[in-house]
Design a protein that fits this description.
- The complex is a heterodimer of chains A (about 230) and B (about 80).
- Chain A is mainly α and about 230 residues long.
- Chain A has 13 helices and no strands.
- Chain A has helices at about 5-30, 40-45, 45-60, 60-75, 90-105, 110, 120-125, 140-145, 150-160, 165-175, 180-185, 190-215, 220-225.
- In chain A, α3 crosses α4, α3 (about 45-60) packs antiparallel against α10 (about 165-175) and α5 crosses α11 (about 180-185).
- The longest helix of chain A has 26 residues, at about 5-30.
- The two termini of chain A are about 25 Å apart.
- By secondary structure, chain B is mainly alpha-helical.
- Helices cover about 70% and strands about 0% of the residues of chain B.
- Chain B has helices at about 5-15, 20-35, 35-50, 65-75.
- Chain B is elongated.
- Classes of the chains: A mainly alpha (about 230), B mainly alpha (about 80).
- Chains A and B meet through α2, α3, α4, α8 and α9 of A and α1, α3 and α4 of B.
Chain lengths: ~230, ~80
C-alpha cells in the first residue's frame, strides 16, 4: 500500500524532470539551428519507448524496429512542429503509434481492418471482464524475470491482448505514463484509460498465472514458511 | 452492504497503486479478508504490474541505436 507522499523524493523528481525538459529544449534549438548531429542525443532516452509503442500495434519485432526507426527519422523532419505543448516523449510516442497504425493497414489490411473501427472498440468497452478462477500465484516477481521463459510468456501475453487494452497497458504499465498522459496520447478520456487498464491487467493475470504455475517457479521459501500456494 | 467481487475488480488498479478512495479501502480489505478468489486476483495483478515494469521486458533489439545513428548520418 502507499506509504504516503515522500516530499523529498517528489521534489527531487520534479527538479530532475525540469532539468530534462530544459536540456531537451536546448538540444531542440541547436538541432533546428542546423546541428543535426545532436539529434541522436535528444532521442536516445526514448528509443525503447518508441520501439515498444510500435510493437504494441504491430506485434512483430522486425516490423516494430523498422517502424520505430522511421518514426524517429520523421520526428526529426517535423521537429519544428513540436511546440512543447506536450512532453517530448509523448510527442514521439504519438508519431510512432500513428506510423505503426498506418503500416498495419498497409501490411495486413484484411487481418486488421476491423481493429480500428470505433464500433469494434465499443463492443470491447461494453463487455465486462470476469477474471478466471485460477490457482494462486505467489511467486516473487523479480525472481521470475531471471527466467527467459517468463519474459517470453509476458511478451506473448501482451501480444494476445485486444488492441485497445494492449496500447493502454503498454503505455501505463510498461512505459509508466500516468493516466492523463496516456489519455492525451491515445485521444481518449482518463475514465476510458482507467477502465481499459483494469481489464488489461485482469486479462494479463489470467494469461500469465497458468504459465508461472506450470513453470514450477514457486519460491522454495514460500514452502519453507509453510504457506500453501494453492487455493 | 458489503462490496461484491465485481465491485472489487473495478477497484483493483486503484488498490494496488494506493490511490483508492479512503472510504473504499476498508471495504476492499474487508472483502479480501474472506474472499480467496479476489485475494488471488489482487496478488496476480500486482505481480503482473511489477513484472512488466522491468526493463528486461521488450528490450530494444541489439544494435538498434547504431542502426539509427547510421541512418541519421546517411540521410541528413
Amino acid at each position: 500500500m502507499s506509504k504516503g507522499p515522500n516530499y523529498a523524493g517528489v521534489m527531487q523528481q520534479t527538479v530532475s524532470s525540469q532539468n530534462l525538459i530544459e536540456s531537451e529544449a536546448e538540444l531542440i534549438v541547436r538541432i533546428l539551428n542546423g546541428q543535426r548531429e545532436c539529434y541522436y542525443d535528444l532521442v536516445a532516452p526514448y528509443q525503447r519507448m518508441v520501439y515498444v509503442s510500435a510493437l504494441s500495434v504491430l506485434r512483430d519485432e522486425a516490423e516494430a524496429e523498422d517502424c520505430a526507426q522511421e518514426s524517429l527519422i520523421k520526428a526529426l523532419c517535423h521537429l519544428k512542429d513540436f511546440k512543447g505543448e506536450s512532453k517530448f516523449g509523448s510527442w514521439l510516442v504519438r508519431i510512432a503509434l500513428n506510423e505503426a497504425k498506418m503500416r498495419r493497414r498497409k501490411l495486413r489490411p484484411a487481418l486488421y481492418e476491423s481493429l480500428d473501427r470505433p464500433a469494434d472498440c465499443n463492443n470491447h468497452e461494453e463487455t465486462e471482464y470476469v477474471p478466471q478462477v485460477l490457482q494462486d500465484w505467489r511467486e516473487i516477481p523479480s525472481e521470475a524475470l531471471e527466467r527467459n521463459e517468463i519474459r517470453e510468456a509476458l511478451e506473448n501475453a501482451i501480444k494476445q491482448l485486444p488492441d485497445i487494452y494492449r496500447q493502454v497497458f503498454i503505455l501505463r504499465d510498461l512505459q509508466e505514463y500516468d493516466t492523463a498522459d496516456t489519455a492525451e496520447i491515445l485521444g481518449v478520456s482518463e475514465a476510458v484509460v482507467k477502465t481499459r487498464l483494469v481489464r488489461a491487467r485482469l486479462q494479463m493475470r489470467d494469461l500469465l498465472t497458468p504459465v508461472v504455475r506450470n513453470s514450477k517457479l514457486l519460491s522454495r521459501e514460500a514452502f519453507k514458511r509453510g504457506r500453501n500456494p494453492w487455493l | 452492504m458489503a462490496m461484491t467481487c465485481r465491485e472489487l475488480w473495478q477497484e483493483v488498479s486503484n488498490y494496488i497503486e494506493g490511490t483508492i478512495a479512503p472510504d473504499l479501502l476498508g471495504e476492499v480489505e474487508a472483502h479480501l479478508a474472506y474472499c480467496r478468489f479476489c485475494s488471488a486476483v489482487v496478488d496476480g495483478v500486482r505481480n503482473v504490474v511489477v513484472l512488466v515494469a522491468d526493463e528486461r521486458v521488450f528490450e530494444l533489439p541489439i544494435g538498434f541505436g547504431e542502426r539509427l545513428k547510421k541512418r541519421l548520418e546517411n540521410e541528413f
